[in-house]
Amino acid sequence: MTGSTTPIHQLSVAVRAKIISAWDTSRLAPFGATYRALTAIVKTSWLLSSPTINSVLGFPRVPIHGKPAKGFRHEFLHLLPNNEPGNPPETITTDVVVIGSGCGGAVASKNLAESGYRVLVVENEWYTLTQGDSSSISCRSC
């Protein structure tokens, strides 16, 4: 792989760089693939960790050109199964039911709610309040 009897970790950095750069033009396909994979990893890690890349590109690390908008008031309702005999089923009146609160469901429910519709988003997970969360939460059948 290196063309030397000396293990690669004992070679100088300049020699190691020269060896790895030579893999790019190697006739053996695995060496070329290894070279491309290593350079992709190095470039990606440099882009993610470089303190100067944002100033070079003229793009700030955090958004500075806008203000956060006021959130839409919402309420979370936790429904637990009620298997006791004689209890009527839970009835909720709504205009629209959105299944799932992923990317599409969240945007659709936000737009519908801002348009005046009563929207119910059904999700298979529990919602946990975070510090500073202004939403209200109620639990029926608790």
UniProtKB/TrEMBL annotation:
Coiled coil: none annotated. Keywords: FAD, Flavoprotein, Oxidoreductase. It comes from the Eukaryota. Signal peptide: none annotated. GO terms for molecular function: oxidoreductase activity. Residues 95-127 form the FAD-dependent oxidoreductase 2 FAD-binding domain. It comes from Penicillium desertorum. Belongs to the GMC oxidoreductase family. InterPro entries: FAD-dep_OxRdtase_2_FAD-bd, FAD/NAD-bd_sf. The lineage of its organism: Eukaryota, Fungi, Dikarya, Ascomycota, Pezizomycotina. It holds the Pfam family FAD_binding_2. This is FAD-dependent oxidoreductase 2 FAD-binding domain-containing protein. SUPFAM superfamilies: FAD/NAD(P)-binding domain (SSF51905).
